[in-house]
Amino acid sequence: MADKPVYIMPEDAQRILGRDAQRNNILAAKIIAETIKTTLGPKGMDKMIVDSAGDIIVTNDGVTILDEMEIEHPAAKMIVEIAKTQEEEVGDGTTTAVMLAGKLLENAEKLLDQKIHPTTITRGYRMAAEQCQNILKELAIEINSEEELLKIAQTAMTGKGAEYVKEKFDDIVVNAIKLISENGKVNLDDIKIEKIKGNAVEDTELIQGIVLDKERVSEQMPKKIENARIALIDSALEIKSPEAQTQVSISSPEQFQSFLEQEENQLKQMVEKIKSVNANVVVCQKGIDEVAQFYLAKSGIYAVRRVAQSDLKLLTKATNGKIVSNLKELTEQDLGQAGIVEEIKQGEEAMTYIKNCQNPKAITILIRGGTEHVVDEIERALKDGLGDVASAIRSGKVVAGGGAVEIELSRRIKQFSKTISGREQFAVEEFANALEFIPITLAENAGLDPLNILTELKSHHDNGGKNAGLNLFSGKIDDTLMQGIIEPLKIKTQAIASASEVAIMILRIDDVIASGKSKSKNMPPTGMQGYE
Fold first, then answer.
1. Annotated catalytic residue: which of 59, 61, 364, 388?
2. Residues in contact with 57: Cβ distance below 8 Å, sequence separation at least 6, in sequence order
3. Catalytic choice (59, 95, 96, 441)
């Protein structure tokens, strides 16, 4: 018995220990950062992602790229989670967050090679991250005008598919946020984005109301209703089927005719009820019987059916109407109001426009473009702009863009490191060096010499130019705050917090155990294996 091996785990389970585990995880994070760094900034390049079905996505949006890459490496998945968190919290800055995490881990590897313990490194990183948050609050300035919001939207969309029409799109973004915001609170779910292939990107428009991907239920109905009074109904305009199995005995043709007439009368009464409250538009979540359609059309009422519940809720905010479940309870006070309800055909597709609403708290951005890939990328650009402006309104603060804030943070964190005794000082210094990765990459992606740019930026900041950053439109160092290259404070605070947290978590891992079932994918023993 003494010579018999003891199996604690299955024979095909795989385990990586100590330094090998750390190197493996750091390598995965570095590869992720290197993959998406070329997309950073206004001069960043796009990625084409082709899935197994042959579908193509062309984008430079960090979270979209990582989401579509079908990454399997466990540590790489943790990095992808940063991008998703950044997208949910702010809506932009995903590439920055992932790049910082990758660089923090790459720099930590240098310290590990110098025999500095991971716990010491993580302690130093935590100190530096906390100090960054304090410095960011100090560097941030209050938003004082709508013009600053327009600049934020422009900065967010620069480098995306919407860049060449950003002067028009910044108006759309800021007006959309202004319409739905209440007392400084913004819910981006109140902005519906509809996409139509056809026409030019410049024809993208903001609709003060909701656009439904539905056509009127009958050709006999009017195509356009002015001064619309809208009944929002989430029950069917149909005869209810019995809940249990039911048999009806009919012994004569007269009884059968009477039965049909009774059903018809019920449907007629439903339409009469709608007419009695002066509604001239019906938006129904469920079905509308053909007989009801006939009576609605005869009464000159515009109706759409099978509308999504989410759209119905948006309509309550846009038209100030109420959703009614029981038609008998419908009153004139429940009706929503809109200037125009109209069916408009775009090629083969017909859509219902409910627009010109008074003080709508839900609106639609209608995106147009020549191809599906174009409208998808425009949507991602607009979402970045909306997220940035919403974030700026919530916090009320912005910081200088173009790498200015990262260089200033790096400079001050290096000063802070000199106040620390012990080996944590080295970790704090490496944290500061990681922050320089952002302006270096911005310069690289614009075809500029990163070393010259970094040296010049440091010189400006050492001489008190705390807002000196890279203006990639002129290719020079400028006061980016004065030039209108600004970003919401929340983007930077969230990116630094997420990047430092995941870097610390990965550095604390010294043992990776994977079950045998997935070892070929999830447990790369060396190099890039398992990174797909």
1. 61
2. 48, 49, 51, 64, 68, 373, 376
3. 95
Q: State the amino acid at position 196 in one-letter form.
A: I
Residue with tokens 């994977």: 514
Lowest mean pLDDT segment, chosen from 64-78, 238-252, 292-306, 340-354: 238-252
Specify whether the CB–CB gap between 189 and 176 falls below 8 A: no
**Angle ∠(290,296,299) on CA atoms, nearest 5:** 145
Write the pLDDT tens digit of every residue in 39-72: 888 888 888 888 778 888 888 788 888 888 878 8
336, 225 Cβ separation under 8 angstroms: no
Q: How far apart are CA 90 and CA 94, in angstroms?
A: 9
Confidence category of residue 182, pLDDT binned at 50, 70, 90: confident
94 an active-site residue? Answer: yes
Q: How many CB atoms lie within 10 A of CB 21?
A: 18
Domains delineated in the chain: 14-142+399-520 (1.10.560.10), 144-208+360-395 (3.30.260.10), 212-353 (3.50.7.10)
Q: Model's pTM, two decimal places?
A: 0.77
Choosing from 311, 376, 384, 478, the catalytic residue is 384
61 classed as catalytic: yes
